[in-house]
Each structure stands twice: as C-alpha cells, then as structure tokens.
C-alpha cells in the first residue's frame, strides 16, 4: 500500500496535465454509474457521445489557454474560458461544469510545479496542496466576477428555488446586480464558494482545500484499490463511496435535502454489502440505478460524478492508479 507522504507529482508539462485531466473526465463519464449518463444510458437526448465531444472541446480550449504566452493566467478567466467552450458545442444544458470548477485550482497549482525536477520537494503530496491552497486564497474579486459569469453562462441546474426554498444569499447568481455587489463588498472567488459550502460539496472543496477528496484518497481509495479488478469497478466504487459519505448537492438543489439523504442511505446500504463483490451488492446497485433513472434527470447525482472525476484526476497526477 502506498504511503500518502511518499507520493510524487508526476506531470512534466502543462500539456501532460491537461491530457490527464481529459483522461480523468473520460474515465468518469465512460463508466456506467447509477443515475448517470454513460455508454449504455441516455437521458433527455444527452448521450455518452455528447460528453465526449464537450470534453474534447474543453481540452482544446485549455491547451490554447496555457499556450497563449500573453495571457496573465487568471483562474476565474480560465473557468469562464472552459465553460464558454463547453456551451458553444453542447446542444444541451451544461454537461461538465463541475469538472471545470473542481479541476481549475488543481490545474493552476500544477502550473507552478511542472517545471520543477522530480526530486524537488515541491512535487510531494503535501506541497502540492500548499500550492493549491495558495491559488485559492490568492484568487481575486475579478476572479469571483468571472466565476459568476461562467456559472450564469452554463445555466447550471438547481439555481432557481434550490432545495425547495428561495435563495437568501446576498450573492444569488440570478441577481442582475450580482457583479456590482461583489465589487462593492470586495468578495473574492473563495468568498463566493465559502458562502455555499455548507450545502454544496464542490464549493466546500474551495473552502477546505479539497479535504474531502484528500481524506477519501488517503483513507479509502489507497487501502481499497486492490480490491477492485477493473477500472470500471474502481470508478463505480469511488462514486458509490462518495454518495454514501455526502448527500448529492445537485439532487438537493433540484429536489430537497430529504430526497438527497434518502439516496445517500441507499448508497450506504450498498457499502455494507461490499458493492459489486457480492450478489446482494449487485442487486442493490441495479435497484439504485432504476430508482435514480425514474424521475427523468431530477435524481441525477451529478455532483457525486464530478467529485469522482476529480478524485481520478488527483490519483493520476500522483500515479496512484
């Protein structure tokens, strides 16, 4: 079993980092998971091919962004640029917004590290997270404005009347004066994420420097990795573990907390039966999939899928898989 403190950041170029990011996304959405679109599951005209096409456009946009030497490299603008490329090709609502949001601070931390020699201490696991925290903490008010523009452009699901209650936040992204309020109150990108961190797991990664993902990798992914024979089994296992640990944020926003907690309990029951390693585990996964697919997308555990992708991305950056 790998010791977390011995892990070394592997990429040697930003092209390598972007390719790994694209591969992590592909591994996530090309695996059939309960309630998610995949190779054998479509929803409202959206297919696996839709995700593949969008992911390819995001990859090309990200490569162009870092190859442009005149760019000052702002994380907020990077997020907006990726979202813009996604929405230009997608005939549907946004498909990979969560991937973009979660990857971005890790990509910018990677930018600081790629030129360092393999023996450099900055390439170690804990140093990478120091760099990520610095990226998040140093993001500006301007980055926060780019973020609001990106999320509005994406038409993200569940923003209107989330969880059955109107937003009470001062920074409601549907507010036409949101940008003026952010400037007037000097709110940074991290401030905006921190405000929604209690009910949104993606936002919480920004507030807590990816503690949820780091602890999952250290305490569960690495110890359990060898118990799953194939890539797809590993990915489904990560997905179900995340769903068992936290109620899915997208399900909560589109429905209510009670519904999200009910689905979390179903995932916890699967954990007790060792997922696909037992007959009962297989039956429970099939039942969960049928239940999640019964509401025409309202029970899509999209945040769980996004977090699955970023866990894969982190694991591949450090050669854990």
Automatic annotation (TrEMBL):
Keywords: Glycosyltransferase, Transferase. One of its GO terms (molecular function) is triphosphoribosyl-dephospho-CoA synthase activity. It is an enzyme of class 2 (transferase). InterPro entries: CitG. PANTHER family: CITG FAMILY PROTEIN. Its EC number is 2.4.2.52. This is Triphosphoribosyl-dephospho-CoA synthase. It holds the Pfam family CitG.
